[in-house]
Design brief:
The complex is a heterodimer of chains A (107) and B (279).
Chain A: H1 2-26, H2 38-45, H3 82-98, H4 102-106
Helix pairs in contact in A: 1-3
Chain B: H1 4-22, H2 58-61, E1 66-69, E2 77-82, E3 87-92, E4 96-100, E5 112-118, H3 127-134, E6 146-160, E7 168-180, E8 183-197, H4 201-204, E9 211-221, E10 239-249, H5 263-277
């Protein structure tokens, strides 16, 4: 029973960690989570309205893409990150391996 | 070993937390279950921008043709901080100011110029980060609300290839005083470009009057302006790169002339316009 629970916990953690890694990798490997900003989207839509008269872009493009970071980028939705997802999963897995509870003693 | 009495509530708690985080914020008048488009979602901690009234000095008007900076219409300044840990970009579209064109045979030899950018107008796309940047430990917007560049001289003026029909462009070096965080330092910005575009039917659709654009790229060392924080060099670079493109017009912009931006920024731009032009 103990080994089964430990295996289940380990698989859950591995799945979450793998999903976090894939998402982090796919969204640009940023350190902090970033959500698209409505203000920057509005700013982006206006690009070129004036400067186009002078021959086009003079500024670097606005980076307003979603990035799933290793660490949370703020409170609310930006709290989602590899740490906040995989951290609790790791804690539970470690607890499954090292914590001795009443149930285990009974088993 | 963890018992089901612990594991099950823990799993439920994680599930509830996940649902709460993933739940999109909805408008007060939105129908139940109606999702907002991603770009319309409101972000936490919007910062109210206050641009102080800006008037062109009377003596500047006697030096030549005054070009008024068109704020609130398009991105004017971009900040870029690059460290191995994080890349941060900040954008502002509320730079106000003016420039006085030089004589007709050398219009790029600007006779005067001054630009003000409110610290709180810089949007990094993260409300919390915007708050940090304006706080006491960083640019201290409460004490030093603006970043100011006062032009003293334009030198090394050379003709540059025209990027667009009708545009006369000059490469030059801008020399002036930069004030950040209450500290003023002389600064020379090489590889700047000053471009002029006389009013045409096409340009009048976007902005009235003869137009002028000043654009440049340069780097600022934060410690030169006594901006010191323990994360400088780690999360935030010691040298911050700036890209500036300021479009000016000979016609003083009316509040309605500037296209208000959507969302919070629109309110800010509108408010800025009222403050700048006093109506």
């Amino acid at each position: 029973m103990k080994a089964l629970i430990q295996l289940f916990a380990l698989l859950c953690f591995a799945a979450i960690a793998f999903a976090c890694f894939m998402l982090w990798d796919a969204t640009g490997r940023h350190a902090f989570t970033n959500l698209p900003s409505a203000e920057l989207a509005a700013l982006s839509r206006q690009e070129g309205s004036l400067t186009s008269l002078f021959g086009g872009a003079t500024q670097p493009p606005i980076d307003n893409a979603f990035a799933f970071g290793l660490l949370p980028g703020g409170v609310g939705a930006e709290a989602a990150s590899a740490l906040t997802f995989a951290g609790p999963a790791l804690f539970l897995t470690l607890a499954a391996f090292f914590r001795r509870g009443k149930l285990l003693r009974k088993v | 070993m963890l018992s089901p009495r612990i594991l099950v509530p823990a799993a439920l708690l994680c599930l509830c937390a996940g649902v709460a985080v993933a739940q999109p914020e909805t408008k007060p008048d939105a129908k139940p279950g109606e999702r907002q488009p991603p770009e319309r979602r409101q972000r936490p901690a919007p910062i109210e921008v206050k641009i102080p009234a800006f008037t062109v000095p009377a003596d500047a008007k006697t030096k030549g043709t005054v070009y008024y900076c068109l704020a609130g219409m398009e991105r004017q300044a971009t900040f870029h901080s690059d460290t191995p840990v994080e890349q941060i970009d900040g954008y502002s579209s509320t730079v106000v100011g003016y420039a006085v064109a030089g004589p007709k045979d050398a219009p790029a030899k600007l006779a005067a110029g001054e630009w003000h950018m409110p610290v709180t107008s810089v949007d990094t796309g993260n409300g919390m980060r915007n708050g940090h940047m304006a706080s006491e430990g960083w640019l201290d917007a409460a004490k030093h609300p603006e970043i100011v560049f006062k032009l003293k001289e334009v030198k090394d003026i050379q003709n540059a290839p025209s990027p667009s029909p009708g545009v006369t462009a000059y490469a030059c070096t801008l020399v002036g005083d930069m004030t950040i965080h209450g500290v003023t330092k002389p600064m020379s910005i090489a590889s700047a470009k000053v471009s002029f575009l006389p009013q045409s039917a096409e340009s009048a659709k976007i902005a009235q009057g003869d137009l002028m654009m000043v654009n440049c790229k340069f780097s600022l060392k934060l410690s030169d302006f006594e901006v010191q924080n323990k994360v400088i060099g780690q999360k935030v670079a010691e040298n911050v790169d700036l890209t500036v493109a300021l479009v000016h017009s000979t016609v003083k912009p009316e509040p309605s002339a500037a296209k208000p931006m959507e969302g919070h920024k629109g309110d800010k731009a509108e408010k800025a316009d009222k403050d700048i032009h006093g109506s």
